[in-house]
Amino acid sequence: MSDELDRAAAGCLLPGFAGVDPPAWVTRWIERGLGGVVLFARNIEGPEQASSLTDALRRERETVLVATDEEGGDVTRLECADGSSYPGNWALGVVDDVALTAAVARAIADDLAAVGINLDFAPVADVNSNPDNPVIGIRAFGADAELVSRHVAAFIPAMQERRVAACAKHFPGHGDTSQDSHLELPVAAGSPNEALAPFRAAIQAGVKSVMTAHVRVPALDDEQATLSPQIMRELLREELGFSGVAITDALEMKAVSATVGVEEGAIRALSAGADLLCLGADVEERFVSRVHEAVVGAVRGGRLPEARLREAAGRVAELGSWASPSPGEAGSREPGAEAARRAIRVEGDVEARGPAVVVELRPPPSMAAGEAHHGLGDVLRVDSVSLSKAPADLDGLVDGRTPIVVVRDAHRHAWERNLVDALVEKTPATIVVEIGLPVWRPRGPAAYIATHGAGRANLAAAAE
């Protein structure tokens, strides 16, 4: 009985790990029944290496889940070095062509299947109703619940045609917040009905998994969603009828780790109705062992019903058996390029005449996306400079060239707005390229491009 309990608890764990090869502790835990692993950008150097990595994991158990965050646009793991070939959700919402959204989802699924990844933490089903949201933003399809719902419903079956499991996130909605759950416990105010609409659409579309949000929704419960039986069991399971795998967002995030703690969070999440505990990126074997011991101890101590743990582990195992994509060719890049082109919005004359310099303004990135290693200067192949604050000398920065200023969510960062206005005043031919939410416009005659995303596809479309 203890061996079965040990395997059931292991089957509910989903850790990350360091390195481009699976460490020995990971393979031991897979043999022990580990539900799966999460791959981050640090684990992936290229398609051939990623395939070798997933092959090594599956030598231990064929049905192990190998997950990643491949949303397109800002959040990519397969193409972190050069930027995504797909434009991301906000651009797809701007185009509002559900057939094109489905084509992009198929292409992403083909990319994942080609390297042996069978669970994608996509699509983002949040309605980004708060423009000051620091972590969702252009990762969402839009700010309108009906728009988001129809694109979520198009994305999921297209991805799952390839036997890559989709994951609608972040339930019951992280869009109406101004805080980042990586850093603190956000509160989602207002009525949750609009936020829930895309998740209803996802479930109706047959989504195989749903990821929880570490947010407090006072209209639903005072407890944060990941740990709330009222939200996870009564709402998600009973009212919405979801029967797939409920995955927690990373328990190492401060919304959990700095409030109840990871081990306590793991027990309470499973008790509430979660099936698979995403542990996060900064994980070592000791961390996994501590969470595993806490779960086993909670069952033996009567806090966590053994039947609930077995139910959770059974759902995870069933998903691992279903998610068996056949390796094939990487996806076509054309749907991504088409979507990025169609999403571009232009105001004024954006043809750069004469020598130019790209000025990349880089506010701190969200932890979900990570630091970008590419920029518009790479695509245009002109001189570029990256700034994280306003420089003292604008003359030395521009040096008589036409500035092409790349901003991200300028409406949220006063130093970006002030720097752009100063450049436009000095050089009226300045071209402004907004790669985040296009809420703010510069003063004066500056030409303006909104890409609705920072993927390589978005930047290539802007360059054209």
- Mean of residue pLDDT values: 94
- SSE-based structural type: alpha/beta
Count of DSSP strands: 14
Shape: globular
Largest sheet: 6 strands, mixed
- Oligomerization state of this entry? single chain
Our measurement of the CA-to-CA distance between the termini, rounded to an integer number of angstroms, reads: 64 Å
Poorly predicted sequence stretches spanning 5 or more consecutive residues: none
Number of helices: 17
Q: What share of the residues does DSSP label as strand, in percent?
A: 5-15%
Strand line-up across the major sheet: 9-14-13-12-10-11
Backbone CA Rg: 22 Å
- Helix content class: 25-40%
Task: Please name the defining characteristics of this protein.
globular, 3-stranded parallel β-sheet, 464 residues, alpha/beta
